[in-house]
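User: What would this chain look like folded?
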Amino acid sequence: MPATIDRLEAILQAKGITVFARIDQQAEAEKVGLSLPPTQLLLFGNPKTGTPLMVAEPTIALDLPLKILSWEATDGKVWVSYNDPNYLKQRFSLSDELMKNIAIIAPLIHQALV
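Assistant: Here's the prediction, encoded as structure tokens.
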């Protein structure tokens, strides 16, 4: 599972996208004596593209920066989840023009997983 997040992080950085945080939720659970399968959350974005979204719809800041969650299931399979840009478009009534600012997420994730 960490290799998946490593690839995603490298691809984002290569594209000039800022990685704001990488949270190892398994490690945090262990600090309080709890068990959690390998689980990491990556927060990333670009203020140049995110700011116009927040100007148009301030509540989108609840979903920005963008996030990717990767976790390992009990069968050893690694899963990746994120909010689809089309979901965000509908949720915040974003214009097609503003959608270009976040549409890159799906191709980048696909690139990391192939």
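Residues 2-14 form the longest helix (13 residues). If you want, I can go into more detail on any region.
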